[in-house]
Structures are given as C-alpha cells and as structure tokens.
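Quick one from the shared queue. A colleague (R.T.) flagged Transcription initiation factor IIE subunit beta as missing a structural entry in our internal table.

Convert sequence to structure tokens.
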Amino acid sequence: MSLNAQLAAFKKEQATVASRNVAYSRPASSTPARTSTPQPTASNDTAKRTHGDAFSQGAAPAGRSEMLSQVNFARGRLKEKITETKSFDEIISFLSLPNDAKKSIPLIKEALKGDQYIEWIPATTTTKETFKYRPIHPVSNAEELKDYLAKRTSAQGILVKELKDGWPDCVATIDELEKERFVLVTRNKKDNSPKMVYPDSPLFHLKVDQDFKDYWLKTKVPTTDIEIRNELEKAGITPTSQVKENTKGNMKKGPRKRPNRRGGKTTNQHMAGILKDYSKR
C-alpha cells in the first residue's frame, strides 16, 4: 500500500471515531438544572453547637482567622488595663464587630474563657461575669515579688522580661530591692540591665568589723607550691607532695605451706556391690 493510500485510510478511521463520539455524547440542553434540597431550620442551641463544632474541626478558615484576631485584640486591651476587670459586654463594645461578625459572639466568649492568658471570673448573685488579663507571674509590686520568690519551691530565678508581662515598670523596683538585699540580680553585659531575679534576705548578710577586714587584707597567702610546702613544714604538717620512701625490713621467707587437697570420704551407695572399699588402706 502506498503512502497516499495509508493517509486516506487513517483520515477515514479518524472521521468514523469522531462521528461515533458525537453520537454518544450528552446534549447540553438535556442536562437538568441542579436544585438544592431545602433543609429544616435549626434551633438556636443547635446552631450554636454546629458553629462550635465547625470551629473546633477547622472549618471555615476565614471566619476562624477573623475570630482569632478579635480574641487577640481583646487580650491586648485587657493587658493594657491589667489591674481592671472587664465584663463581656464591655469587651464586645471596644471590639466594634461588624454586623456579619456578630454571629460569632458566642464563640468569642468561649475562646476568651479558654485562653491561658485571660482569667475568667464567673458571675455571682450580685455581680456579672468578668474577664481579666492573666500575666505569666502574678506580681505587680515589691511586696508581691518578695512573697512570690519566697514561696517558690525551687531555687530557679525569674526572667525579668517575664515579670514585665504583668509589671512593665519593674526595673526601678528591682534595682531598689537589690540595694536593700531582698533580691539577687544577674545583669546583661551589654547594658547592665537586670536579666534574672533570685530570692535573697538581709539576714543572710553579716556585718564584718573593719579590724577583721584589715587583718584579712594584710595576711599574706603563699602563691607558689614551694612557698606552700615551706609554710606547711614550719607548722609541722607533712605536705602531700613529699616523696615517701619505701622502707623494706628483713623479711625472711618461711616454709611454704602446701594446701590440703585431701577431700572427704566419698561413697557410692548405688555401686556398693561392685566397687571395693580402699578407705582403710
């Protein structure tokens, strides 16, 4: 078969396949319009629970991100008013939520209750529920710092930057407490600012007379090994660096004792009629 004949056969087969595909294709006009199935209206409690489940499962990332932003903003405002408690209505008022975001108010309330940096104070018979910022360390003045350090069970210090979370202007008070010897402070080499705070007490610091200080400063301490050894020998103390002589006395070797290898009497009761007894020889 020539090349022209092969090309004609290929085009004929391609046209046949195309016509067959068109015959079996679904017309666009015959596709029915898809309608949504009407859903029953849920109650308010069901709607809230659905919103909470969807948020916990990570659904609606855009709404979740917006709600987290509102919670972070509320946390920042509570931190600015760290000594004050705010009701939930006051928090919502300074959030200034748009109308389409007010449906997430119940979720914002639950998120504030579960936030580790926010303290939730439940309502009582006479007061409403309130919220307050919870710092890393519950310290805001000098007396609270001394009590807090005294109640700690470990000797580990506290970072000053953590104290600033609930007490921003604590540096001046820490410097004063250090002068009064109520705290021990380690400082940064760069700017000499306080870095760590440890407990201390004025009772641990003894008053030393000036006569004792002068005597201590006048006392000469040996600086070399030879001077130390000479001072020890003058005091009648044998230095550990002295060479010990290994004295050997007249040690005579005595007769060597041979170990007694003779064992006890051994009998084989089950072979009494076969073996002979040579123990008497």
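The beta strands are 86-87, 118-121, 130-133, 158-159, 183-187, 194-199.
The first strand starts at residue 86 and ends at 87.
Added to the table.
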